[in-house]
UniProtKB/TrEMBL annotation:
Bilayer disposition of the protein: Multi-pass membrane protein
Regions crossing the membrane: 21-39, 45-64, 106-128, 140-159, 171-191, 211-231, 251-275, 295-320, 347-365, 371-391, 412-434, 440-460
Coiled coil regions in record: none
Localization per Swiss-Prot or TrEMBL: Cell membrane
Protein name per the record: APC family permease
Amino acid sequence: MSDENSENGGLQRTIDWKQGLAIALGVPVLILPSIGYFANYVWAFAIIIWALSVFQGFMQNFAYGELATMFPKASGLPGYAQSVFTSQDANRKYDRSKLLGGFSAWSYWFAWNPVLAIFSILIGSYLKGLIPSFAGVPDLALYLASGAVVFVLLILVNYRGLSGGATLGYILAVLSLAPLIIISLAPFITGDFEISNITGAWLPADWSWDVQHILILLGLMAMAQWSACAWETAAIYGPEYKHPKSDVPKALFICGSICLVTFILVQAACTGTLGVEGILNEPFSPMLPMAQMTLGPIGGSLTILMLIAAMVLIIQTAFLGASRAMYSMAEEGNLPRFFGKMNPHGTPVNAMIVIALFNMGFIFLGTPSAILAASAIGYVCANGISLLAYVKAKFDPRFSKLERPFKAPAGWQYVAFLFGIFNLPLCLIGVIYLNSLEVGWTSTIVGFVVLALYLPLWYYSQNESRAILEKNNSQSSESTM
């Protein structure tokens, strides 16, 4: 199978479930930009939101695990939706079903893409608080420098294929979980953790369960799933697993179990140690004062450096996921062929370069929460459409004979439908409302503009594909004459 892929110049089957898990283990780090954001709105109740969101991830990933084994050549969520929403009329110039599948993939690409900019900003923020000599460096310059260094490094590391990135992932996986766990467990050992900081501050005093606050809660759930459900990224490497039928479910659910523990632990430790006010005093980097409080200046600094290495891992996870989403779209004819061009090692290097440049532009926004809010719009669209794709795959006779080595529990199409509706429209409406409270309409406008950019790219790709087909047909006719 790997030989066939290699000959065709496609993605190559070079990794096992442990390597896929290693790459996806950067996901727990996604909590970092939201610790202060969530505490600002719901205080200690943020712990419950993370638990509910990881539970949502399990419900959704049962469906994604089955889709992964139904379409073993598809590249994660982008590939599943495109495989289900395929054109049934080859003669139709612009097929709406194909457009919908491609739009889902584009939404997923937009969900992962800004991770690079968000964590480049966070790396710069942590470095500035850690290294006194950086105090006089303008924030934007530090963010751009950290982004440029990380992007170039990851392009070079992954240039020779995913297995090289997975090797780096093994190393960084340890470096990602270790600081999160060390910093989060330290307050319990040192006695700095105060349970009263949680039990006495569950929700703001003015919180009520009216329409406005429910919309805020839905918006936070949209933001939370961007982080806590993102371990489905383990399935995006479906075409590159040696044994996708067994590797995908293993990587997915082991990573999910780890996320369930870490997301709850990190938010609870920060709240119990610093209190809500302490978190809000350092909303971008609350792990820094907690580490210095419990581990001392030297120990705190060392663990924060490890945490920065963890941020590099999640940037790598996003880099690989976003580049393969673009490759998948180009392969399906939903993006121009330029984005599907592979180097001799099977790496979609053009897509990686475009993504790096895109994120350097995003860094100019300078605010992680605004970037994340825009990105969450893409993520709820991708999840909503992908879950509905699963429902369609369960009922459409075209897919009834496909092999399904991993099956979700019986009747799971109805569960998937409910979560699909939860994403679209409920979470989408919630995050739009939350954006209007937090940063005005900027994030919403940016989110919808980026999503709308897909339409001209899609129409161009359809015309490009048709022109290539006509050229090939013309050459075939001439050769037969």
